[in-house]
Each structure stands twice: as C-alpha cells, then as structure tokens.
Amino acid sequence: MKRRVHVLGTGGTIAGAQPDPGHYGYTAAQFGIDWLLNAVPGLDRLATLSGEQVVNIGSQDMDDGIWLQLARRVNEVLASPATDAALITHGTDTLEETGYFLSLVTASDKPVVMVGSMRPATAISADGPANIYNGVAVAADPRACRRGTLIVLNDEIHHARNAVKTGTSNPSAFSSMSRGLAGITSAGRVEWFEREPHPIGGPPRFDVGGLESLPRVDILHAHANMSIDLIDAAIAGGARGIVVAGVGAGNMSARAIERLARAAQHGTVVVRSSRVVSAMVLRNAELDDDGLGFVAAGDLNAAKSRALLALALTRTSDPQHVQSMFDQN
Ligand code: ASP
C-alpha cells in the first residue's frame, strides 16, 4: 500500500506568482495547496496525498501564534493512524527556525518534511515542483522516521536543526554547515548518509499542546558602535529572554556585556549566539559566562536560539537549566 502523506500549506515563494514569467518581482503566497500539488506531475505514484491550508503568508510574517497552531496541527495529523507522514510547504526566509521549532515540539516518530522554493511557482524553471516531488518522496520513505524535522530543497535533505539559509536567490540557498546533510534526493530517489536514524525523534522535548503564546524573546545584533538602549527597549517591551547575535564567537562591546549582565541578574535569560554564519559559541571561552550569568548557544544561530529559548522559558528562567537545554539540543 502507498504511504499516506498529509500536506500542510503555509505559503511562501513556492506559492508565489509574478505578473508574467520573465518579471523580476513577485508576490509570495498567491496559490493554495491544491493548486501547488496539482502542478506536480506523477505525485500520486509516490504516495496517497491529502492537503490543507494552515495559513497562506510570506514566511517573514511567521510568528509564535502560527508556530503553535502549526505544531498542534502537525501533532494531530500524525497522531491519526490514517497518516504516515506530514509535508509542510513554507517560505524559505524563516524555514530554518520553523523547522527547528517543529523538531522540538513534534510528538511523533513519523516523518515531518518541509519544502520551499527560491523561485515563484510561475517562474521559468520554477524549483518548487521538484522540491515538492522530492519532499513527498522523502516523507513517504519509512527510513525518514525518527530523524526529526527534515528540510528538502535543491535535491538535498537537511536536518532542520542544522539547515541555514545562506543565499537569497540561487536555488542552492540552504546549507547544513559543518554538521552536513542528512542525505540527497533526486527525481524521487532517496539516499540517506546515516543508515540508522539519528536519535532526534521520539518524545517531544516540549509539549506545546496547552500553550496560547510563547514568552517573548528578542534578538539583538552586535556590531561596532552597538546601541545599548536597544537592550533596555527589549526588557521594557516585555522580553523574558534576549539572544545576542554576537560578533565572532558570541562577543559584544564591554558596555553591552555590562548592561546584559545586569539584566541577567534581574531574571532576563541572556543567550550568546553569533552573527557569523559558521560559528561555535563555547561557554567561558572569551567571556566569563559563569560570572556574567549568560548562556552559550554552541552552533545554534540566533533565530534557532530564539526558538529554543522561548520554549525553555516555558519551564524555567534558571540560566544553568537553560544552558543544559542548549547543550542537549
Ligand atoms: N519571502 C519569501 C518567504 O519566506 C521567500 C521565500 O519563500 O523564498 O515566504
């Protein structure tokens, strides 16, 4: 029997349209999920498909409320014996953080695969149909179980935990950096680099079933002449956590360190990540995290760190406890 893949549409460039195929500009999220699936020839050879539209937005408008809605729907769909896997279409701008968030909150070993595209659906040589085709093939592969949320684009299979967007127009826009790809796929054929699933599946790290919202976490970008009053604005605005996309290995100016250490003393959880695309922010290296009360993000970038910190804050504001969650991620 063919595997049953349920597709959840959220919009993005993969559902985008131009005024005409040669036009440079386009608008994301113009087509619904049925239109997208009908545009891919031969999908029914790979799986039995069903679909629904969760939202239809450019992923720059993704927010915590939609994350919680999507997570609940993914968990409901996968809990049904009538579904073997979920495929989510999503814009590429925030794909890496939605994917990582879902990998932390999905309560099923069944495959969760996300696809997007760099060219709109109406483009000459649109990449969306091939990404959907390969995404369905990966979702329908029983070997995709227990691998956590996966992202399929440009014939590559990424763990959502590792994938980052590194380009803004070329179809080869995602990289898994030092951790490497989960596998490759082409014309529906799937090759896994790790024969056995990496143990990222299993019980969810966080249960978001009863949550209406997530604690506010803001990201501040460190740079020369960094403005300290943005830290105050974040705290005044209600942030319970701050992620710094630091320079180098999560560094920042002495004034920013001093202000954030004070915030940490008063209960704001401060996570040091990096603005460097291939970064490793280690604890107590150039900064004294123990003394300052900070958390070090390892190789999680700032957007992914925001997702983990927001979930962590639903349980604790103790920086050592939060650090242990980052260490295990
Ligand atoms: N702005 C679009 C989005 O993230 C870009 C894309 O999908 O590639 O929805």
Description:
This protein is of the alpha/beta class. The protein has 2 domains: 189 residues, L-asparaginase, N-terminal domain (Rossmann fold, 3-Layer(aba) Sandwich), CATH 3.40.50.1170; 112 residues, Rossmann fold (3-Layer(aba) Sandwich), CATH 3.40.50. The strands form 3 sheets. It has an 8-stranded mixed sheet with strand order 2-1-3-4-5-6-9-10. Strands 11-12-13-14 form a 4-stranded parallel sheet, with helices on both faces. The longest helix has 16 residues.
Broad structural category: alpha/beta
CATH class of the largest domain: Alpha Beta
Roughly what is the average pLDDT, rounded to an integer? 96
Strand order across the largest sheet: 2-1-3-4-5-6-9-10
How would a textbook summarize the main sheet? 8 strands, mixed
Give me the Rg, rounded: 20 Å
Helix share, percent: 25-40%
Strand content: 15-25%
CATH architecture term of the largest domain: 3-Layer(aba) Sandwich
As residue ranges, the low-confidence spans are none
Shape by Cα distribution: globular
Please work out how many helical segments DSSP would assign. 10
